[in-house]
Amino acid sequence: MLQNHTPALIQGCLLKMGEQDPSDRLRGDQPKEPNQNGKGSFSQFSSSVRAMVRIRMKYQAIKKRRLEIASATPQIFTSPRSTSPKVFTFDNLHEPVNSNPASPRKRKKKRKLRVLYPTSSLRAVPTKESSRAKNCLYLLCIIVFLQIYNAIENLDDHVLKYDLEGLEKTLKREVFGQQEVAEGLLGHLQDYLSTYVHNKPLVLSLHGPTGVGKSHVGRLLAQHFRSVVGEELVMQYFVLHHCPTDDDIPLCTKSLDSHISEMVSQGEEEEKIPVFIFDEVEHMPRQLMDTLQELIHPQNNNKYLNAIYILISNLGHEDITKFVLHNSSIAISGRLSLTQELTPWLRNYLQEHHVLFVDAEYLPFMLLEKSHVMDCFIDEMSREGFYPDRSHVERLAEELSYYIVGEREFSHTGCRQVVAKVNLL
């Protein structure tokens, strides 16, 4: 307001100074004296100049004080009464007001967004809309689980009709000294009989010296499978009995081919697996083995895939006996280690003998010790109705010949002479 009225105030003072002498204002109401010789006009002019100078100095002092006050306050709050022109720029528009320019500027940390729950006592994270595909996935998992469970139940039902548990009890009760063979035999049968569809037949090769129980195991298998699948689906073939001479080889070959074909076809109709047991394979002619090889491994026919072939022989029995006697003294874990070491050698030996044994599963029989021979005497005497006296059994077992290796005694003939000894009682 003062800046706007300053020029008008100066003009008013000048008009008054022109009408009246400043010295008269200082003297008040004193009477005026007439000017003498022009001195009065000069004094009036000098007094008016001095008054203008005083007003000018006072104005400059007031303006300077206001500028100092205005410079001490921020630009935003500058008084609108300032007379100095201001030019607007965008240089300092976004700069924050800092009362202490020496202090470093601090960056403001961004606040993390938080999930705001309702004020009620129940707090739950908001969920998205559930997809329908999840329900389909759950349904698919349930269907697959039911199918797998049903397949497992069917496998169990398929094995149950062959009564492998009964076969296991029979082998443990009547086969002595061949625990590893019995476990391996049951394992192969369990795996093969768990399903009806196969890509190849099961071929088991039982090998060992004389009198160790090979033929006895074959008879037990024939009796068991005849009771579970029927007489028509089990064939027990003795080479020296069914094909005794070389002249009978062509007829034996034709008869064997037709018999096996009929049994396999019947097994397909009844959904059962036939069993073929060939004893005394070491006496089988070459032509008969070739025919059996063609039946076991057909070229372009899937007819003979569901069948079990059991080959019993004593091929290489002398080498097996030497191997057992040589390694029995260093065997730490019993017959299990001997069986594992003997199987690779037996495989190479039999595959060189004939290709029939290429895809066979090998079950080597070990030599029987004296304690096993005594078990054979006790079992046979019980069958014949004799009381198995322990001293009597030991005396009969001592009449047989043995291989002595350290503290162990292995029978030369196994249990082969036990029946003849008991019949003499």
Summarize the structure.
This protein has 15 helices and 7 strands.
Write the layout of secondary structure elements.
Layout: H1 2-19, H2 22-27, H3 39-72, H4 132-160, H5 164-174, H6 179-193, E1 202-207, H7 214-229, E2 234-238, H8 239-242, H9 249-270, E3 275-279, H10 286-296, E4 308-313, H11 317-327, H12 335-353, E5 361-364, H13 370-384, H14 390-398, E6 402-405, E7 408-411, H15 418-423
Parallel strand pairs: 1-4, 1-5, 2-3, 3-4
Antiparallel strand pairs: 6-7
Helix pairs in contact: 1-3, 5-6, 5-7, 9-10, 13-14
Write structural notes for this entry.
- There is one protein chain.
- This protein has 425 residues and is α/β, with parallel strands linked by helices.
- It has 15 helices and 7 strands.
- Residues 1-6, 13-38, 76-80 and 332-336 have low confidence and may be disordered.
- It starts with a helix and ends with a helix.
User: In angstroms, what is the radius of gyration?
Assistant: 62 Å
> Largest sheet, order of strands side by side?
2-3-4-1-5
Q: Summarize the amount of helix as a percent range.
A: 40-55%
How many H/I helices? 15
Mean of pLDDT: 78
Overall form: elongated
Hey, roughly how much beta strand do the residues contain? 5-15%
Query: SSE order, as H and E?
Result: HHHHHHEHEHHEHEHHEHHEEH
Task: Kindly report how far apart the N and C termini lie.
Answer: 154 Å
State the total count of DSSP E strands.
7
Provide keyphrases for this structure.
425 residues, five-stranded parallel beta sheet, elongated, alpha/beta, 7 strands
